[in-house]
Amino acid sequence: MVENQSERGAAKRFGISRKTVSKMIRHAVPPGYQRKEAPVSPKLGPFVGIIHQILQDDREVLKKQRHTAVRIFERLRDEHGYAGGYTVVREFVGKERLRQKEVFVPLAHPPGRAQVDFGEADIYLGGVKTRIHYFCLDLPHSDAIFVKAYPAETTEAFLDGHVAAFAWLGGVPLSILYDNTKIAVAKILGDGTRKRTKSFGELQSHYLFEDRFGRPAKGNDKGKVEGLVGYARRNFMVPLPRVRTIDEFNARLLVACEKRQVAVLRGKKESIGERMKRDRLELLRLPTDVFDPCEKVSTSASSMSLVRYRNNDYSVPTAYGHHDVFVRGYVDGVVIGCGNEVIARHKRCYGKEEFIYNPLHYLTLLERKPNALDQAAPLQNWDLPEDFEHLRRLLEARMGKQGRKEYIQVLRLIETFGDVEVAVAVEDALRLSAISYDAVKHLVLAKIERRVPRLDLSAYPFLPQTTVGITDVRDYLALLQAQVIQGRVEVSP
Fold it and tell me: DSSP states of 199-248 as a string?
């Protein structure tokens, strides 16, 4: 082109073909080598439809149980008579899987919207390695986050997480995106709509936010909170935290969430905290009434005055045996009621097939069946001061069977006055040798009413009595005379 030579002449001069010269003239920069897609091998061609069907069916199968290229090759060879090589199958399967990979559209997130999910991780709780679950709420517009840990991913934890997050935000998001957790979704209907669970319906009815749900098995529909689950685990739980209580751990998590608000993320010009202000402007107001974050269950008490909740048995007073009751399960407690009355409160147990007793629930029955006192399971691990056992031995030694009944009556005083007050009264009764139920009760009342106790032991002939004789003047004179003889008394002039 510079020397005005023909293409033929240039080809002859440089020793290349005329086609190459023509291509060089058409392109100012060498276009590089572009390989054309190779056609399907003639041997594999008849089996392409079978491979497509296998890959299509794999979409409905657990990821770890899908076909590998080797397994597809073996099935083609053994079941369909394929006579070609493995390499051709492997390359074809690789290209097909690449075509099937999903491509996503970048999303813009308006303020006031949220996403919610749960994650799990291990921590050292009280020195013991423990698996915990943590509630995550993400505000995609500002990337603000809220994380709170719980012993298990349960209905009450799900509800309590929302209540805590809304209180921290100072408002309620306009809408919240969820996966199809069974805690919130009872059933997916044929038209794709979700039938909410009773507990989730009550939560939404109280706070009035819009609920949205991602497609089943499509975590990318709520990619922000999915990313938060991993972020919280990597940044807040590595190395494994060591805490005494889960409340201490939650205090750490809250500090970490608030500390993150000063960060300016990639592609943003404002900090998380500055963008979070726009989120808060769009939030719904918090209701004036407080939501009760618990799971509600109706059941009945057994013949042994036990109520089963979440595979554990909790005691109720024996008067409510065989009665219909309702249970409110909280993150840290279980409240049992009958009618409009609360009849029992217990600390929440996250074990399985365990019995959680309150010994006081069985004392009324033991008063009628005192012979069962030693074998009563609810009293086996009752941590009482040693004075109680000492009092029982004395009562039974002096009064026999009646002494055992009186001891049970002493225990029943704890129902009314509390264990500390009764323990002090038992200690005083032993010191005064006033070994009886009435004496202990009198001492408790005197302590509460701040008056001097007045014990009249004449009504208890079985108690040890102290006899005080009348002083005789002659005995005193005899003693004085003996001292004069021994020279111990000085006579005044």
Answer: HHHHHHHHH-PEEEEPPTT-GGGGHHHHHHHHHHHHHHSSSPPEESSHHH
pTM confidence score: 0.74
Q: pLDDT-derived band of residue 492, with 50, 70 and 90 as boundaries?
A: very low
Q: What are phi and psi of 491, to 5 degrees?
A: -90, 125
Give which of 175, 164, 167 is closest to 204, Cα–Cα. 175
Rounded distance between C-alpha atoms, residue 408 and residue 363, angstroms: 7
pLDDT tens for each residue of 35-87: 666 677 888 889 999 999 999 999 888 888 999 999 999 999 999 999 999 99
Phi, psi for residue 305 in degrees, rounded to 5: 60, 45
Q: Are 410 and 367 in contact (CB under 8 A)?
A: no
**String of DSSP letters for 311-356:** TEEEE--GGGTT-EEEEEE-SSEEEEEETTEEEEEEE---SSS-EE
The per-residue pLDDT for range 411-462, each reduced to its tens digit, is 999 999 999 999 999 999 999 888 999 999 999 999 898 888 877 655 555 4
Cis ω before 39 (30° cut-off from 0):
no
CA distances from residue 386 to 268, 321, 334, 393, 481 in whole angstroms, order as listed:
67, 31, 30, 11, 51
Token pair listed for 286 = 């918090």
Do the Cβ atoms of 272 and 142 come closer than 8 Å?
yes
Domains of the chain in sequence order? 1-34 (no CATH), 45-100 (no CATH), 113-282 (3.30.420.10), 295-356 (no CATH), 364-459 (no CATH)
Angle at 474 (CA atoms; ends 473, 479), nearest 5 degrees: 100
Determine contact, residues 49/72, Cβ cutoff 8 Å: no
